[in-house]
Design a protein that fits this description.
By secondary structure, this protein is α+β, with helices and mostly antiparallel strands. Helix content is 44%, strand content 22%. Helix 3 (75-85) links the parallel strand 3 and strand 4 (88-95). Helix 4 runs parallel beside helix 5 (151-177) and helix 5 (151-177) packs antiparallel against helix 6 (181-200). It is globular, with a radius of gyration of 21 Å. The model has no long low-confidence stretch (mean pLDDT 88).
């Protein structure tokens, strides 16, 4: 799956009931998982055991294939799943013949688009598991590495850009609806300040 080396391939089904029991999920939480997820299977293990050329033993990365009951899954549910399993997980969200990648990084869920299974590929970049994990996050977020910035910084900047752009859009809408000239001017100044912050994040 995902064009990863054959040496990383495994098959370990994670029974939902075992997950519910181990983490003592209440009835509402169990129903939420059941409504969205059909089956979960670990399909790849990226570790020193499966890729001996890596420099040192660090926390492994697992690819978890998640069979969905419909296209798409709530981010809060994916976040909860990643917290429960408490591993570095690259989620391969499968629905019919499409696949979407998701990854929990720096307290946020990163997602790419659903596309045909054969078109979803990732590359293992780096000489350590930490490097590989950070570059997987970049790939899922569809961001390009930047000289002088760590992958974590690139992702954090992208998150701040998205938040700032959303703030600008909301304030712009509010400004056009505002009737009082003084309030309109105050909103325009706030928008210009945010635009300057956005330029600094480029």
């Amino acid at each position: 799956m995902l064009g990863l080396p054959q040496t990383t391939e495994v098959k370990k089904i994670i029974p939902k009931r075992a997950l519910y029991s181990k983490f003592e999920l209440n009835t509402a939480e169990q129903k939420e998982f059941d409504a969205a997820i059909r089956q979960m299977t670990i399909v790849n293990e990226i570790s020193l055991r499966t890729i001996p050329a890596l420099q040192k033993q660090e926390k492994s990365v697992f690819v978890l294939a998640v069979q969905l009951k419909q296209e798409g899954c709530a981010e809060r549910l994916l976040q909860k799943l990643c917290r429960l399993i408490d591993q570095r997980l690259l989620l391969a969200l499968c629905y019919e013949d499409k696949l979407q990648l998701a990854l929990y990084f720096d307290n946020r869920i990163l997602l790419n688009e659903f596309m045909p299974v054969a078109e979803q590929k990732v590359n293992l970049q780096g000489t350590s598991l930490n490097d590989i994990w950070e570059h997987l996050a970049l790939q899922v977020a569809q961001l390009t590495p930047r000289a002088g910035l760590t992958p974590a910084s690139v992702i954090a900047n992208a998150g701040r850009r998205a938040e700032t752009e959303a703030q600008i859009a909301a304030l712009t809408k509010k400004m056009f609806a505002e009737k009082q000239a003084r309030k309109k001017l105050t909103l325009r100044e706030a928008i210009n300040k945010l635009k300057k912050e956005l330029e600094d994040l480029q």
